[in-house]
Input
Amino acid sequence: DTGVSQDPRHKITKRGQNVTFRCDPISEHNRLYWYRQTLGQGPEFLTYFQNEAQLEKSRLLSDRFSAERPKGSFSTLEIQRTEQGDSAMYLCASSPPSFEQFFGPGTRLTVL
Amino acid sequence: LAKTTQPISMDSYEGQEVNITCSHNNIATNDYITWYQQFPSQGPRFIIQGYKTKVTNEVASLFIPADRKSSTLSLPRVSLSDTAVYYCLVGVSYGGSQGNLIFGKGTKLSVKP
Output
């Protein structure tokens, strides 16, 4: 395991459709984070898991967004009824207790 | 919430030392300061983290004054491959809440030959 992986790398969808992204963290990292990044901006925190527990959620995470981390391993981020404003890069990161975050390559979402 | 302010862009030449300063006036007692580097179409990569005074690793140094309201990332002898966006992150706190992670807008560093 050489790093955080995300799937898919690119997703094009039509407005109103649901999409799901997957993140596989580095093995044994108990913390997992989701961020959203739009062009020219820094990453915006969405949510955070410690093991399987979702401990923090940003107000950016509307009720159309849901994240899970069953069994404290991989995580999924689902967006329901996508809107054009959801177009962004969705980044996943994981960290050990030292809190240094290791980021994945991201999933670029385009909503038409 | 501790917001950060950085210069939007900086230019440098190969071999020079580059210092990027980040302001974080409302930093909390338990907050650490972390810097990340990001290349286009890639996720950010950790550079360095500190709480106070000076921290040095194999790629950079981080200077934090006593009041901790700012920090300076120092990159010695930059090369063309250091051209990237550098983000200052405040809020990673050992043992504390992870809900207040805030990236700055980033500083786009351009290194010229």
Notes: Chain A is about 0% helix and 50% strand. The CA atoms of residues 9 and 93 of chain A lie 15 Å apart.
